[in-house]
Amino acid sequence: MSERRGMLRRRGDDGPRASVGELLPYLFPKKGLLAGAIALSVLGAGFALAQPLMAQELIARVEQSRALEWLPWLLLAVVVIGAIVDGFQHFLLQVLGEHVVLRTRRTLVASMLRLPIAEFDARRVGDLVSRVGSDTTLLRAVLTQGLVESIGGVLTLVGAVIAMLIIDPLLLGLTVLVLAVAIGAMLVVMPLLTRASGAAQEQVGHLTSALERAISAVRTVRAAGATAREVDAIGDRAGDAFRAGVRVARISALVVPIFGIAVQLAFLVVLGVGGLRVATGEIAISQLVGFLLFLFLMIMPLGQLAGAISAVSVALGALGRIQEIVRLPSESDADARVALEPRPGAPMVAFEGVTFAYPSADEPRTVLEDVSFEVPAGSRTALVGPSGAGKSTTFALVERFYDATAGRVIVGGSDVRDVDRESLRSLIGYVEQDAPALAGSLRENLRLGAPDATDERLLEALDAVNLGDLVGRSPRGLDTEVGEAGVLLSGGERQRLAIARALLAATPVLLLDESTANLDARNEASLKAALDVASEGRTTLVIAHRLATVVDADQIVVLDGGRVLARGTHEELLDASPLYRELAAHQLLAPAALD
Ligand SMILES: Nc1ncnc2c1ncn2[C@@H]1O[C@H](COP(=O)(O)OP(=O)(O)OP(=O)(O)O)[C@@H](O)[C@H]1O
After folding, report:
1. Ligand 1 atom 2: the closest Cα is on which residue?
2. DSSP at 441
3. Three-class secondary structure of residue 48 per DSSP
4. Which of 44, 45, 35, 39 lies closest to 81, judged by CA?
5. Is 425 in the pocket of ligand 1 (CB under 6 A)?
6. Is the CB of 389 under 6 A from ligand 1?
7. In this predicted model, what pLDDT tens digit does every residue of 463-504 receive, in sequence order?
8. What distance in Å separates the CA atoms of residue 343 and residue 13, rounded to the nearest whole number?
9. How far is the CA of 390 from the centre of ligand 1 (A)?
10. Which of 383, 393, 515, 588 to mutate to test the pocket of ligand 1 (most atoms within 8 A of CB)?
11. Domain range 11-326, CATH class
12. 288-345, pLDDT tens digit by residue?
């Protein structure tokens, strides 16, 4: 348990970091493209190195008044072809970068949507969204900002150093000395950059979370007159992200002057000492020019390398946040691979001494205690109880969103922990209390659990829940959009749409968390009729908030404070349970008062 709680705990502001070894597999989604880009980089290095050699030869010929012949044209061709090779390589790297982002996003989303429900309880949606949207793009920079170019760059560097060694070892020694100090300083700065950029991404996550909170509850925020405060709060988060970004900028800004000073110094030293050596006749002017051109060639890859190291540092911070999710065990990792086959004669759903505490709560507290009841196949059981009694929690346990802390939850005669979760859920239709309509069309909403259902069946299902007129409301019919959170539909309609969805999935078990919304008499009657249609021939467990729902239930379970207080039919409980009598009189939303 403590290990689990540790896993759910959020990380500090520093942000998680990955290692270079973990980064590499992410960079090789398209080996052919990568090989092509590396080959072009090597080719580009060859063209780059050829240029100073040819320029040096050209100057020597001018100096010695020799014929230039085809040399200028050859130099021009090398420059043009080199530039084309560079452009093509740049394109390949961009494409490769997009592949990296694509693959990482797919992996991340596949892991994210399979996380245990408890992880969603403990995390902010906005933060998860920013990991998919923003962190993944930082991996692209590793490819586009120099890592692959650095391969060709290293070759250019080695070639340039060899050429410089041949031209003048003394000048090379002085150059290397100056540059080595700068490289050492940069190696010290890089780990700071990784940490700072991980923290900056973390702040972007907090910002997205704050925005998501305000947008998802925009009506409540607006109605509460809290818009300005929310704007300020999100602005503060944006400010935090800004400050974290500035911290990154400050650290990476160190790299530029360190490098700049080193390069200037190297050029000045070469010019000064080289000029002296030309004056004393130890080297020719063409050699000094050649040396300077090679020095230039040597500096460029060093710049690329610095860019690559900084991109890698930033990517390691982002990858840390990506890996944090990818590494979490998926919900089904610990599943038994046995498909659930309901045993004839066994109660369809049963709780045997179930005790439960939410794992994600800061102070885990028992929400269900020693709960036992049975729902025979084909019957309807209503759960009633005051708010917070634990009614919705029982549904979460039947769906196996969480595991019971003690006792057993049985579906179709098997302990839900002994069977594969997918096969368990394929038996159950679940209509949530605030049944969400997914952004998209009516058709998409209905097909969620029955992807192959024909339009004819969709229309039948809509008719069955008295939503047939929904299709006629818009000329787009089943393609009518139901909006981000189903804004076109009322609460009661959304719930009926969810019931239609459950009807189409045709599962033997139906869990229905009845809407608590105060519905008008017509909607009320429609919802009751929809429930009756949906529960026909199915084992139905309904969390009831309406008297009409409980009166004809085969069994009513009264929950209070996580315990079963009483079980029986409406008449039996009116006699036997004071709490039920109280609920029936005051809390169950009765269209007509009890007589
Ligand atoms: N995801 C969660 N993490 C932690 N605690 C939770 C979670 N969901 C519910 N709880 C707590 O568990 C208790 C039971 O909640 P539950 O939603 O099952 O009650 P309910 O009887 O369905 O209430 P209502 O009729 O108001 O929906 C409540 O105290 C609630 O605060």
Report:
1. 358
2. B
3. helix
4. 44
5. no
6. yes
7. 888 888 877 777 778 888 886 544 567 777 888 888 888 888
8. 51
9. 6
10. 393
11. mainly alpha
12. 988 998 888 888 787 777 778 778 877 888 888 899 899 998 887 777 778 888 888 8
For 349-587, give the CATH class: alpha beta
455-464 helix and 521-535 helix, angle to the nearest 10 degrees: 120
For the record, the structure tokens of 362 come out as 């800061």
Among candidate residues 264, 281, 283, 60, the one with its CA nearest the CA of residue 170: 283
pLDDT per position as a tens digit, 195-246: 888 888 889 888 988 888 888 888 788 888 888 999 999 999 999 999 999 9
pTM over 0.80: no
- Please give the Cα distance from 268 to 270 (Å, whole number): 5
**Which one of 117, 125, 358 would you pick to mutate in the ligand 1 pocket, going by the greatest count of ligand atoms within 8 A of its CB?**
358
Using most ligand atoms within 8 A of CB, pick from 119, 360, 367 the residue to mutate for ligand 1: 367
8 Å CB contact between 136 and 23: no
Q: Is 463 in the pocket of ligand 1 (CB under 6 A)?
A: no
Indicate whether residue 385 lines ligand 1 (CB < 6 A).
yes
Residue type, 474: S
The two three-digit tokens of residue 174, written as one number? 């002085």
Rounded distance between C-alpha atoms, residue 349 and residue 331, angstroms: 22
Tell how far the Cα of 122 is from the centroid of ligand 1, in angstroms: 15
List the structure tokens of 69: 């012949």
| Longest Cα–Cα distance in the chain | 120
Residue found under tokens 């692209």 = 140
- Domains of the chain, residue spans: 11-326, 349-587
Q: Compute the average pLDDT of residues 364-372.
A: 92
Catalytic residue numbers read 514
Question: Is 350's C-beta closer than 6 angstroms to any atom of ligand 1?
Answer: no
Whether residue 429 has its Cβ less than 6 Å from ligand 1: no
Q: What's the whole-number mean pLDDT along residues 22-39?
A: 82
Q: What is the 3-state secondary structure (H, E, C) of 117-174?
A: HHHHHHCCHHHHHHHHHHHHHHHHHHHHHHHHHHHHHHHHHHHHHHHHHHHCHHHHHH
Residue to mutate (ligand 1; options 5, 117, 360, 391; most atoms within 8 A of CB): 391
For residue 264, what are the CA distances in angstroms to 271, 307, 338? 10, 18, 70
**Rounded distance, CA 229 to CA 212, Å?**
15
SS3 226: coil
Characterize 257-285 residue by residue with b for buried, 16 or more Cβ atoms within 10 angstroms of its Cβ, and e for exposed.
ebbeebbebbbebbeebbeebbeeeebbe
By the 8 A CB rule, do 515 and 545 touch? yes
Q: How many CB atoms lie within 10 A of CB 549?
A: 24
CA dist 313 and 307 (Å) reads 10
Ligand 1 centre distance from Cα of residue 401 (Å): 13
Q: Is 537 in the pocket of ligand 1 (CB under 6 A)?
A: no
Q: How far apart are CA 152 and CA 158, in angstroms?
A: 10
> Which ligand 1 atom sits nearest the alpha carbon of residue 394?
18
Atom of ligand 1 nearest to the CA of 516: 25
Contact residues for 46 (Cβ-Cβ < 8 A; gap 6+): 155
The closest residue, in CA terms, to atom 18 on ligand 1 is 390
Cα(387) to ligand 1 centroid in Å equals 8
